[in-house]
Write a structure and sequence with these properties.
This protein is of the alpha/beta class. It has one domain (15-220, 243-286): TIM Barrel, CATH 3.20.20.70. It is built from twelve helices and eight strands. The protein has helices at 45-48, 51-58, 76-82, 107-113, 127-134, 138-151, 178-193, 209-217, 221-230, 258-262, 274-279, 295-298, and strands at 15-19, 62-66, 89-94, 117-121, 163-167, 199-202, 245-248, 254-255. It has an eight-stranded mixed β-sheet. The protein is globular.
Amino acid sequence: MKEKFPSINKEPIETLQINIGYKCNQACKHCHVNSSPMRTEKMSNEIINLIPKIIDKYKIKTLDITGGAPELHPEFKDLIRSLSMKKIDIIDRCNLTIFFEKGFEDLPQFLANNRVIVTASLPCYEKDNVELQRGFGVFEKSINAIKILNELGYGKSKEGLQLNLVYNPIKPILPPSQKMLEDDYKNILSEKYGIVFNNLYTITNMPINRYAEALKREGKLDNYYKLLKENFNKNNLNNLMCKKTISVNWLGQIYDCDFNQQINFRGNQGPKTLFDLMDESFDFDYGVAVKDHCFACTAGSGSSCGGTLT
């Protein structure tokens, strides 16, 4: 068992991940952000207006927009419109149920019109498992949302509009093989509901915030950390998402990854805010801030916002 997470270094940044607000129309048990309908934190217009400038300055390839439900931010659509002429991939981390909230009926068409990549949580293809984790009625809404996206052309080809689904375990275990599970998802969802998607990303649950508190109450937190450390795979170190990503919270503060952001954990090197990035030029040659929760990203086949690492 590896007791201490190894040192790793930042590399030139390819992905800008922004959390534009904690408000969400759901309150999922596994949520490491602790999002809910009661949260009010949201990114200011001043910070949002910096994002296209940062993308230009550092030649960012991907903008990854998260929340909460990021679509609840009043400037969500304007931000995407402001990037329409730039050669950049835009990812919307979507919970799918947002499509059925009042005032968001046009959201699927908007995403399609702007060729936004939809990466959506669907932690299982079985109704009971999804609703145990995400709440009553979520599964049916999610299936109907995917049908709407399919009708708009999402998920039907590698070259077309991209729809990716995200799986994370219900229990404190490592995800199974991403390829095998993707095949199961595609077969079962197609047969039962007539829906399609492009890729399935398996993500290891991170032992922080709401999920860590749940494991602690159940007396399972220490065993989960033990599982992650025992399954440390050094081959995953080369592909860790945090090396080529900066994660920005609603206040414009910069972290190495979304998980570090949520526990307010950063190192002493590198830019502290988006304003620093604008005022100076950084080459991102510094150490990533690491802690025991990082073992979740290196265990087994590895884990990132884009699925397994090996």
